[in-house]
């Protein structure tokens, strides 16, 4: 467990696990589930910076994801842009949008902030369903495969290496950020914004930076997942999806990067494992989430770690 | 972390082994939107599949083998449908995939079934699913385009050649509008007024006043839910005498209840399923639609919907193809499906061909007129 506390120990462990996984998960479906977990984990790691460390809430992150996905779909599909350029443009465009809206939005606190981000997500979702000439409307649109300089990932295994590498990269970035002056400033903001400002932290700039970073994480994951699935629908940007992303962070454990990964894994795996229950699926799913929040209110990973430590001490 | 990743891989492994079973039954895979925003479509579809798989099994299954339905709920999300289709192909090793309630879910599945070379029958509406034709992809519902053709053909027959089109700005209305504008010239009618209204508008008098001031001879409204009923009421309040047509989107009892007396004389295209009891005994679809209605309402109560009819056709078209192919081998079933001729289903008479993987024509729609608060078949 000490490994997890150092900056790179956990990363090495996870890398080893990710390397071994393709040999354990033999068929395309299991690799697909692993890929979906990685996509969600990348977004959750980014969102965790905002929610867990900066203490700000966003109920509109699926909007950024949707923008990334549709940027790739439209630029590559309708305008024949190369995939890497579409991806970078999506990331840059979302960064700019996030930056522009962050200043006014992040002045708000608590419920008002939640409401403003929710509105942002809703607007994106509405535009995507209504601009049917561009986006294909509620039916969605097809996305061409990801071609990177003549190479195209074929099959789940090739995609797995892309997503696994990106996940490790995302975690590495997040861990470094947390240990940087910005990360410390963010935690100060989380603790008390007034105190942080008194101590000379430019709280607004901090919050804006982390909001932009987490939006870019979502946009890149959205863009790649659009290529991976081969089809996008406005459902990707829906409010419910935003809530799902926040749930991943909260259930895994706020202010814990690996907690966010665990939360993403759980939220992606559970529907697959419970699908045999048919009508009771949602009931059991909800029950598991409720019980885990009641028993481990600080989230799965911090909760489990605390439990292990007390047991070892006893 | 080690412990966690171990638990994770065990969990993943469990999911895998639980799903693998002996190859004895024929396995039908389905991915439908039973929850989420499209649940009103997916729910009757799943019920129909369960009901008829049960009935086929009671009658001895297919080729002497029992049927087994493997079902997943995509909650209306294309990405989830994509994962579940992979699961059906790679883990459950199904012999056919039915479903895709929405166009998005269907299109997310298309590349996968094409690659796996597995027969796939969708219950979603859009033309893109079968146009261009994809070798392994079929669909059962009729399209908006056919509704437009049906309405325009009826107008043409009555000598109504100048049409006012009033469409809703929803997905359904938008798609219907585009298709109607596209097919009008071929049907010999011209659209002289083209107006839209919002799905939540409470008064459409302004648009109708424009219609009244034009030289249109008939009016077609393309919308869903309450608003077409409001249009109908406004229409009577303004005293417009022109014949009024609605789309198949209002082919339900709610429309009659909402529009009341104003609905008298309104014409609309509808699948035969909704007027099962009104069909002539000589009608080829009579036996199928009354049989389906009786079986469904007896088991689940309530009203039948056209969406359940799509699922019925999907399952029965496949069962028919399996019987003719004498096998569940994918390429034989695919060839048999494509060779389907004269299959009588809930949505119409299906004639597939290598260039047509839906196989319905405008005769799948019946023209109804509202008389004395009920539906009357006019052709």
From TrEMBL, chain A:
The keyword Thylakoid does not apply. The chain crosses the membrane at residues 37-54, 81-100, 158-178, 210-228, 248-270, 282-301. Keywords: Cell membrane, Membrane, Transmembrane, Transmembrane helix. It is found in: Cell inner membrane. GO terms for cellular component: plasma membrane. The keyword Transmembrane applies. InterPro entries: ABC_transp_permease, LivM-like. GO terms for molecular function: branched-chain amino acid transmembrane transporter activity. It is a multi-pass membrane protein. It holds the Pfam family BPD_transp_2. Its main location: membrane. This is Amino acid/amide ABC transporter membrane protein 2 (HAAT family). It comes from Plasticicumulans acidivorans.
Automatic annotation (TrEMBL), chain B:
Residues 1-22 form the signal peptide. GO terms for biological process: amino acid transport. Keywords: Amino-acid transport, Signal, Transport. SUPFAM superfamilies: Periplasmic binding protein-like I (SSF53822). The keyword Signal applies. InterPro entries: BCAA_transport (IPR051010), Leu-bd (IPR028081), Leu_Ile_Val-bd (IPR000709), Peripla_BP_I (IPR028082). Residues 25-371 form the Leucine-binding protein domain. Pfam families: Peripla_BP_6 (PF13458). Belongs to the leucine-binding protein family. This is Amino acid/amide ABC transporter substrate-binding protein (HAAT family).
């Amino acid at each position: 467990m000490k490994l997890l506390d150092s900056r790179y120990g956990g990363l090495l462990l996870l890398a080893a696990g990710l390397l071994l996984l393709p040999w354990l998960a033999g068929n395309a479906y299991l690799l697909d589930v692993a890929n979906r977990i990685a996509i969600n984990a990348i977004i959750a790691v980014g969102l965790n910076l905002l929610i867990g460390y900066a203490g700000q809430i966003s109920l509109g992150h699926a909007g950024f994801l949707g923008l990334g996905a549709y940027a790739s779909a439209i630029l590559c599909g309708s305008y024949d842009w190369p995939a890497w350029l579409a991806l970078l443009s999506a990331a840059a465009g979302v960064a700019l949008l996030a930056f522009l809206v962050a200043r006014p939005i992040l002045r708000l606190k608590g419920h008002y902030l939640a409401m403003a981000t929710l509105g942002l997500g809703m607007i994106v979702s509405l535009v995507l369903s209504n601009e049917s000439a561009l986006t294909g409307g509620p039916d969605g649109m097809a996305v061409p495969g990801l071609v990177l300089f003549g190479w195209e990932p074929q099959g789940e295994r090739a995609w797995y290496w892309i997503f696994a590498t990106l996940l490790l990269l995302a975690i590495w970035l997040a861990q470094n950020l947390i240990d940087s002056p910005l990360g410390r400033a963010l935690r100060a903001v989380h603790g008390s914004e007034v105190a942080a400002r008194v101590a000379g932290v430019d709280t607004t700039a901090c919050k804006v930076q982390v909001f932009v970073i987490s939006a870019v994480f979502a946009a890149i994951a959205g863009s790649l997942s659009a290529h991976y699935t081969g089809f996008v629908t406005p459902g990707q940007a829906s409010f419910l999806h935003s809530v799902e992303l926040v749930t991943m962070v909260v259930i895994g454990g706020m202010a814990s990067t690996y907690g966010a990964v665990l939360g993403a894994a759980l939220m992606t795996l559970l529907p697959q494992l419970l699908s045999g229950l048919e009508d009771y699926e949602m009931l059991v799913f909800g029950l598991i989430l409720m019980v885990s929040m009641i028993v481990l209110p600080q989230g799965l990973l911090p909760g489990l770690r605390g439990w292990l430590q007390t047991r070892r001490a006893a | 972390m080690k412990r966690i990743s171990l638990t994770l891989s065990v969990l993943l492994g469990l999911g895998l082994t639980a799903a693998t079973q002996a190859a004895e039954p024929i396995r039908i895979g389905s991915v439908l939107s039973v929850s989420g925003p499209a649940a009103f479509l997916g729910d009757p579809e799943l019920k129909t599949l369960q009901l008829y798989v049960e009935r086929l099994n009671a009658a001895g299954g297919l080729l002497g083998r029992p049927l087994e339905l493997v079902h997943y709920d995509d909650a209306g999300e294309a990405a989830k449908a994509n994962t579940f289709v992979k699961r059906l192909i790679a883990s459950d090793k199904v012999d056919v995939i039915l479903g895709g309630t929405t166009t998005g879910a269907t299109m997310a599945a298309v590349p996968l079934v094409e690659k796996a070379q597995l027969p796939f029958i969708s219950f979603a509406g859009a033309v893109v699913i079968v146009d261009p034709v994809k070798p392994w992809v079929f669909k059962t519902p009729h399209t908006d385009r056919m509704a437009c053709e049906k309405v325009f053909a009826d107008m043409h027959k009555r000598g109504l050649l100048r049409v006012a089109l009033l469409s809703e700005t929803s997905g359904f209305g938008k798609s219907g509008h585009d298709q109607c504008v596209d097919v009008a010239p071929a049907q010999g009618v011209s659209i002289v007024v083209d107006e839209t209204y919002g799905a939540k508008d409470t008064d459409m008098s302004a648009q109708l006043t424009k219609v009244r001031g034009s030289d249109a001879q008939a009016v077609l409204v393309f919308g869903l839910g309450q608003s077409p009923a409001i249009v109908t009421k406004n229409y009577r309040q303004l005293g417009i005498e022109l014949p009024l047509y609605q789309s198949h989107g209002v082919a339900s009892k709610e429309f009659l209840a909402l529009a009341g007396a104003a609905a008298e004389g309104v014409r609309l295209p509808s699948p035969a399923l909704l007027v099962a009891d009104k069909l002539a005994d000589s009608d080829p679809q009579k036996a199928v639609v009354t049989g389906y209605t009786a079986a469904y309402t007896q088991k689940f109560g309530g009203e039948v919907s056209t969406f359940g009819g799509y699922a019925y056709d999907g399952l029965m078209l496949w069962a028919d193809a399996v019987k003719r192919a004498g096998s569940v081998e994918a390429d034989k079933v695919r060839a048999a499906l494509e060779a389907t001729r004269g299959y009588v289903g809930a949505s119409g008479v299906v004639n597939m061909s290598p260039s047509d993987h839906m196989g319905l024509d405008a005769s799948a729609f019946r023209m109804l007129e509202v008389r004395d608060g009920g539906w009357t078949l006019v052709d």
